[in-house]
Amino acid sequence: MLEIHDMREHLWINPQHTWEDYRKRRSLSDIKLIVVHDTENNINDIKIANELEIKNTALHPMGLPRIRFHYWINEAGEVYLCNDLENVTWHSHLADKKSLAVALVGDYDKQEPKKENLKILEVLLNKLITELNLSRKNVFGHGELKLYLNFTRCPGKNLIKYVKQYRKIGRMV
User: Fold this and answer.
1) What is the CATH number of the domain that holds 164?
2) Engineered SS bond to 70: which of 100, 140, 151, 158, CB 3.0-4.6 Å?
3) Quick one: which of 51, 37, 26 has its CA closest to 125?
4) CA-CA distance, 164 to 154, in Å (whole number)?
5) Can you say how many angstroms the Cα of residue 98 is from the centroid of all Cα atoms in its chain?
6) Is 86 exposed, middle or buried (0-12, 13-18, 19+ CB in 10 A)?
7) Which pLDDT does position 125 carry in this prediction?
């Protein structure tokens, strides 16, 4: 069974932000895509990761409203729920309003994902596609969404192959 740590009440929101999309709610039926990301760092503490996202002025002059991922999996394989699925977060440009974000901690251009974490990611994806009435064909790596103006290497060359394999056969490992 997948244990998910609910952090929604424990992660603060950037008080400088008036980002209206974040406060808007969408219906779960509006979610059509699941986007897999890497974090491009090895920060395994969710509260520190949230603070760094808030201070990330490369993405916005005031930083982000909050961590941009709905689910976050650290290197120990712990799964955290960071945002309500109904919340639109900044993670995939023009696909934000129709997608949810799942992140695996690490820089997967430089490192290989752990097999145990790939299995946890697979279990989480299976749970989400069932709950959201999607198919594995709705799961993409961030950089695959070029149609939505995502021109990035995320989730890295060493993770994207597993995302594509999952979409094709339903398994990462």
Assistant:
1) 3.40.80.10
2) 100
3) 37
4) 13
5) 13
6) middle
7) 98
More confident residue, 117 or 20: 117
Sheet (strand 99-104) strand order: 4-6, 79-81, 71-73, 99-104, 33-38, 139-141
CB 71 within 8 Å of CB 82: yes
pLDDT category of residue 25 using cuts at 50, 70 and 90? confident
pLDDT of 15 strictly over 90: no
Encoding tokens for residue 75? 């290197």
- Short-list 35, 34, 56, 38, CA closest to 109: 38
What CA–CA distance (Å, rounded) separates 71 from 131? 14
For the CA atoms of the chain, what is the radius of gyration? Answer: 15
Domain count, the chain: 1
Task: For residue 116, give its domain range.
Answer: 4-169
- The 3-state DSSP class for residue 122 equals helix
Tokens 């251009």 found at: 109
Label residue 46 exposed, middle or buried (CB < 10 Å: 0-12, 13-18, 19+).
Answer: buried
pTM score over 0.85: yes
